[in-house]
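Slides due. Your pick:
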Amino acid sequence: MGTDKNVMYFKSMIKVVSLLFFITFISISQDKQKTDEFGLQLQDKTAQAIVQPAGVPLESTVDPEKYFIGPSDVIAVNIWMSPPFNFSLTVTPEGTLIIPTIGEVMVADLTLAKAKELIFREARKKYLSAEITATLIKPRPIIVTVTGNVLNEGLYTLSAIDRATKAIEEANKPTRLQKQDDLNYILQQMSTRNIVLKHKNGAEDKVDITKYLATKKDCWNPYLREGDVIIVPRKNPLKNVFGIYGEVNSPGRYEFVDGDSLLDAFKIGMGCTRLAMKDSVEFTRLSLDGTILTSHIIDIQSIMNGNQPNFPLESGDRIVVKAKKESREDYRVNIQGELMYPGMYPITKDRTKLSEVIKQAGGFTEFSALKSATLNRRSVQPREVEIERLLSARGGVSAEDSSDYFLETELRLKKEIVSIDFEKLFIDGDSSQDVILQDEDYIIVPSVKKTIYVFGQAVTPGHVPFIKGMNSEYYIAKAGGFTDRARTGDVQIIKNKTKQWLDPDETTIEEGDYIWIPKDPDRPFSYYMTIASQAASVLSVVVGIMVVIAQVTK
């Protein structure tokens, strides 16, 4: 009996252990499932926190020491443990950041760097060993006021990563009812160096757009904060200015601001060019009453090196940076047409002759027409054409000559022909024709034209093969002869090279010339009646005079 009881007791214990093992297995499975689900949720949160918002333009990375936190900034707080905690949090309107498992942290009006330190300090109270990071992932929108000398004063919605220049740019965007002239007037009157930026805490910053563009220092173009007020004053374009001219990269007249120094002027002028004579810069200053002018030579390189002291500027100061003598300019000529290697060729100023450049180009081809070759020169630059045209009209040109003069002047402004004979130079060896080339001369060597072109009132106008010694009647006959409307007595020969119009008996026809046959004009019957009446009137007057003379002589 005792043995049976022991066996039954042993079986009962096995059942209890088995039941306990089953319950433990089920519990472990459920916990693992919950852990997996929690891990997946954390992964989703992490993925959401890592995704950066698109469409926020940045000129550079955000500097944590200069960016101030405010309501609506989105900050990612990451606690790197197993499993990690990742939170994408928005600063509340009260300026706090509510961090799950940590608490509420006041971050408003702190720089991003200071806010990070505070977040780390609070998180360390709970997470002693985990790595903790905080990152700005979306800057907040802000509202600022722009007033003063701008096109449209008012409130503007910007971003906390925008600078003062962005607000001024928005305030100067014309509406559909405004014209570009309105904006141009504002820009001419707007100060760019005396702009005031007022913060809501009473602090003020000075905005100097000109100096910011020259130095790229953030202090001259601060980042904006909500509630900022930007005041843009007017400027006086004649007073409170200084000038820097000559061999600087951005010469001109600039607005003067108290505190400007000589080196500031060179920074605003974007530095010296390669040709600048830095040891002989001319500095000029007027007396307070504007009557006495003093000037002296300064060594700007020595001042830049710190060997001589920098000094402050005054309104009206002028700086002239002289240029070194430089003869290594891009002097060149263009050769086109029947040469072995046409194209651009370099020349030496006032030295290179025509024959030298033709030699560089490989000489003429067998199809070159030297008799028609031309050397063209443009002595008036395109930017000076209008002034030259006006100056040319100042002379006492008669009414009869004005139209021809203006036509010839236009041709001269566009292309001046150098009078030389290529055949004499390159065939006869006449060195008097070997002219010295100038920059941007244009040499054209046309192809041989073994034809004469007959056009106008010819039956079949077109090219006729050239035969030396033949006259205009021969070529007109080859072109089918005259039409019924041809003015046969007014045939003209147009020379190929000079485009001069000549009568057939005044020139010998050469290859490439043109023969022009004008048309007999269409005139109404009234025209001939008028001519007849005028002739009759003249005839009657003549007859009357003759009768009077006959009576007197009797």
Observations:
- Residues 523-554 form one domain.
- The mean pLDDT is 85.
- Residues 79 and 132 are 5 Å apart (CA to CA).
